[in-house]
Specification:
It is a single chain. The chain is α+β, with helices and mostly antiparallel strands. The protein has three helices and eight strands, in the order H-H-H-E-E-E-E-E-E-E-E. Strands 1-2-3-4-5-6-7-8 form an eight-stranded antiparallel barrel. The protein starts with a helix and ends with a strand. The relative contact order is 0.19.
Length: 169
């Protein structure tokens, strides 16, 4: 329990890069010796996750994912910001291909970002652009997964590193 308390303390009291590294290392250490559930590692199912920078450019995003045998389809929406003039959200829809089906699962992805704006004059939707990315998912037991990824958004030419924690439904 002290290990978990120390991990949380480090995450809450350090810079963002150190937090990401600490969370990933802690997740990998916690998962040592755990074997991925075969139904998840090579099967179908739904998952939901909360993430930073997933969807792109969000400070908090919620993603719903359908996992196939070697692929996944994901839809997400997240908070970008708000002001007196309105609320700004971003979302994306993407496909992912998993290269391995064990506890550590590297993947590539391709998707489309969209932007949602709402204010007192109404609401609007616009496409943000195509993105290409990749990452590493770590299965923590049979139902929980942790992932880190980096996406490259076209034509903005920006990289977005992200991290998330998910649960299989």
């Amino acid at each position: 329990m002290k290990c978990v308390q120390k991990m949380v303390s480090n995450i809450l009291h350090s810079g963002p890069l150190r937090s990401v590294v600490s969370l990933v290392i802690s997740g990998l250490l916690l998962s040592t010796g755990l074997k991925a559930n075969k139904a998840y590692g090579a099967g179908n199912g739904w998952g939901i996750s909360a993430a930073y920078n997933n969807p792109l450019a969000t400070d908090l995003g919620i993603n719903v994912t359908y996992f196939g045998e070697a692929w996944a389809g994901e839809f997400g929406v997240g908070h970008v910001g708000s002001s007196n003039s309105g609320l700004y959200l971003a979302g994306d829809i993407n496909g992912q291909y998993y290269f391995l089906h064990d506890m550590l699962r590297p993947y590539g992805k391709l998707g489309l970002q969209f932007l949602l704006v709402g204010n007192k004059n109404g609401a609007g939707v616009d496409t943000g652009g195509l993105f290409l990315g990749g990452g590493l998912q770590c299965v923590l037991g049979s139902r929980v997964y942790l992932y880190v990824d980096v996406d490259y958004l076209f034509p903005a030419t920006a990289f977005y590193p992200g991290i998330g924690l998910g649960l299989l439904l």
